[in-house]
Design a protein that fits this description.
Strands 2-7-1-9-8 form a 5-stranded mixed sheet, with helices on both faces. A two-stranded antiparallel sheet has the order 3-6. It is built from 5 helices and 9 strands; from the N terminus they run αβββββββαβαααβ. The chain is of the alpha/beta class and about 200 residues long. It is globular, with a radius of gyration of 17 Å.
């Protein structure tokens, strides 16, 4: 399914840390308080050969809009080779959290929040330029062999010559995931990556 395909990407790219805002993982987590949770019983938790890497520290930060604090994050240390879920109710700040770590949005405090600048981010709403799906994918790296391999992995090779802006929501999400993985990152942020995919895909 879709989660298996994402895990395949993680293996191929040797990603050290994954933060995933995915509601379908909620039942595997320990609580629903809008915090980062290590999914201890997630069967792929230890698949990465990154045990020798140092933990990644995310510093404490907050975000305020019009005098209202929408996010107050106490900080967290991520262990390499683990997958983490960011869970919580609608409006609890999950997407704000991901956007701040990705550098799309500024936190209230100044200074460095992460131990790395190698961060990949897949937002909830994925963009598709008016060109073929493969051309969209190659915007993030010109390695055609890698693009072909990733498209085969997530089973969208048949869409490579289709106009990307004509794809369905689920097809666009899969294309965006392949495009993201054209580069290798230490930390990947996935904001509800399977939300637009159908049951067969996910």
């Amino acid at each position: 399914g879709g989660v298996d395909k994402i895990i395949d990407f993680i293996k191929v790219n040797k990603i050290k840390y994954v933060l995933c805002d995915a509601k379908r993982l909620d039942s595997m987590a320990k609580n629903n308080q809008g915090i980062i949770v290590e999914i201890d019983d997630f069967k792929y938790c230890d698949i990465l050969a990154a045990k020798e890497a140092e933990p990644m520290k995310i510093s404490a930060f907050s975000k305020t809009y019009a005098g209202r604090t929408v996010l107050d994050f106490p900080g967290k240390e991520l262990q390499p080779g683990k997958i983490y879920a960011v869970i919580g109710a609608n409006g609890s700040g999950k997407s704000t959290f991901a956007r701040i770590l990705a550098g799309v949005l500024k936190a209230d405090r100044k200074g460095r929040l992460l131990d790395t600048t190698s961060v990949g981010y897949m937002p909830q709403k994925n963009y598709a330029f008016r060109m073929t799906a493969k051309a969209n994918i190659l915007l993030n790296g010109r390695d055609e062999a890698r693009a072909n391999h990733l498209m085969d992995t997530i089973q969208i090779r048949h869409l490579e010559n289709k106009r990307a802006d004509c794809l369905s929501g689920g097809e666009t999400a899969r294309m965006a995931l392949v495009r993201l993985m054209m580069k290798r990152y230490d930390l990947v942020l996935l904001d509800e990556p399977t939300a637009a995919m159908d049951m067969e895909t996910t």
